[in-house]
Design brief:
Layout lengths: L8 H11 L4 H8 L3 H15 L4 H10 L12
Helix pairs in contact: 2-3, 3-4
């Protein structure tokens, strides 16, 4: 998957907040969007990355370098 196909900065924000263990409603409040918007983004990201569950989404996102482990730095 090309970098340009990986979504926008808001998608990365959603991924990072989910990776921190937040639920959709909390992610929505943090980002100032609706709960349904977060659900739709998550579903679209899962489709784009070819995964069928949230656990797989986190694993794939980490594998692709879209999120970093809680103890890793972005450097």
């Amino acid at each position: 998957m090309e970098a340009a196909d990986r979504g926008d900065a808001r998608d990365l924000d959603v991924l990072r907040l989910l990776y921190q263990g937040l639920d959709d409603a909390t992610v929505a409040r943090r980002l100032g969007v609706s709960h349904r918007t977060v659900q739709r983004r998550v579903q679209r990201i899962m489709t784009d990355l070819g995964v069928s569950g949230r656990f797989a989404l986190g694993a794939k996102a980490q594998e692709l370098g879209l999120i970093f482990g809680m103890n890793q730095s972005a450097n």
